[in-house]
Amino acid sequence: MHVAEGRANGLAYTYDLLDLDHHKGVPLADLIADAEARGFGGLNITHPCKQEVIQHLDSLSPEAEALGAVNTVVLQDGKRHGNNTDWWGFAESFRRGLPDADLTSVVQLGAGGAGAATAFAILRSGARSLTIFDPDQNRAANLAETMGRHFPDATVEAGENLEQTIAGATGLIHATPTGMEKYPGLPLPAEFLHPHLWVAEIVYFPLNTELLVTARHRGCRTLDGGGMAVFQAVKAFELFTGIVPDAGRVQRHFAELTQGAQQPAAAGGIAS
């Protein structure tokens, strides 16, 4: 997406993959320093480095600081500036894909870096109640406490009984890696899903995760992770280049890239 949009804007744009599987044992600090040495202008940060990267940065945008997670780093004038475009990417995708979704009571699975972004986005979008579940109860509680400070008019809490909470919920956000090729399966029992629930996914390779397929079979309205992938890239491109990209063109290119494709999600990227 970045390369195609760069070319469309007359840029000699390079975007390389830094697959963590191929750099096992290499400290994150060394990977960032290597990108700087090679002259790259920025990095996209994905799971599982969105929180760890913060300690290696010089500054954070207000959103990144609020979320405690970074997915876009701009390398400029010898400084590393951390940003978060995930939250806006999810919010914009949600606005377009589920425009009339009931935000009365939302459940979220996952309290990591991506979960911080989706929680911020759905509360910014008007959710009145958000209950967060994570295998690490402390992490869920910490995220709920942080979001509660930023959105005092909403009810935000860490959940205890997933089945009971989902039974009364109007929406479900899935913000864990489950569903990726490396982590196949469902993030919750299929029978917990009910027709009055909309389901929003963040995984985008594959686009049709087992969760989305199961949710549709059970009568749920769904939103795949492709929109979040596109719109976080749209905002990241603007940060990297100072040029506002053509979002529709980026969407069309993403559709071409994912037409029938079942690829693993990238572990990170660098752009210049």
From TrEMBL:
Taxonomic lineage of the native organism: Bacteria, Pseudomonadati, Pseudomonadota, Alphaproteobacteria, Hyphomicrobiales
SUPFAM superfamilies per the UniProt record, alphabetical: Aminoacid dehydrogenase-like, N-terminal domain, NAD(P)-binding Rossmann-fold domains
Pathway: Aromatic compound metabolism; 3,4-dihydroxybenzoate biosynthesis; 3-dehydroquinate from D-quinate (NAD(+) route); Metabolic intermediate biosynthesis; chorismate biosynthesis; chorismate from D-erythrose 4-phosphate and phosphoenolpyruvate: step 4/7
Stored InterPro entries: Aminoacid_DH-like_N_sf, NAD(P)-bd_dom_sf, Shikimate_DH-bd_N, Shikimate_DH_fam
Record GO terms (molecular function): NADP binding; shikimate 3-dehydrogenase (NADP+) activity
GO BP annotations, alphabetical order: amino acid biosynthetic process; aromatic amino acid family biosynthetic process; chorismate biosynthetic process; shikimate metabolic process
Protein name, as recorded: Shikimate dehydrogenase
Signal peptide bounds: none
Keyword flag Nucleus: no
The organism's place on the tree of life at top rank: Bacteria
Domain Shikimate dehydrogenase substrate binding N-terminal span(s) in chain numbering: 1-73
A Pfam family assignment: Shikimate_dh_N
Coiled coil feature spans: none
One cellular-component annotation, GO: cytosol
